[in-house]
Amino acid sequence: MAAIYSLFIINKSGGLIFYKDYGSAGRMDTNDSLRLASLWHSMHAISQQLSPTMGCSGIELLEADTFDLHCFQSLTGNSK
């Protein structure tokens, strides 16, 4: 079972709404957490636009040697 080290909630404009660190090692300061949230939002948005597949929802999972970074999108707040 995978552990959750951090939780970021980002709005659709890329602003960090909520950040909680659940791990004890490697805590990030406020600026680092803002940078990471902004970078992840930008990569996700760009991947949606560059995808050759119509209706692509962007990057859903980034796997690294020591962690996995998942993207879950809520359906709330969508207005058309």
Radius of gyration: 14 Å
Largest sheet: 2 strands, antiparallel
Structural class comes to alpha+beta
- Helix fraction by DSSP (H/I, runs of at least 4): 25-40%
Strand order across the biggest sheet? Answer: 1-2
* Total domain modules: 1
In the CATH hierarchy, the architecture is 2-Layer Sandwich
Query: What order do the helices and strands follow?
Result: EEHEE
Q: How many helical stretches?
A: 1
For the structure shown, list the relevant keywords.
alpha+beta, two-stranded antiparallel ribbon, two-stranded antiparallel sheet, 80 residues, globular
Characterization of the model:
There is one protein chain. The protein contains one helix and four strands; from the N terminus they run ββαββ. The model has no long low-confidence stretch (mean pLDDT 82). By secondary structure, it is α+β, with helices and mostly antiparallel strands. The chain has a two-stranded antiparallel sheet. A two-stranded antiparallel ribbon has the order 3-4.
Outline of the structure:
The protein is an alpha+beta fold. It has one helix at 30-50, and strands at residues 6-10, 16-21, 61-63, 68-70. It has a single domain, classed as Beta-Lactamase (2-Layer Sandwich).
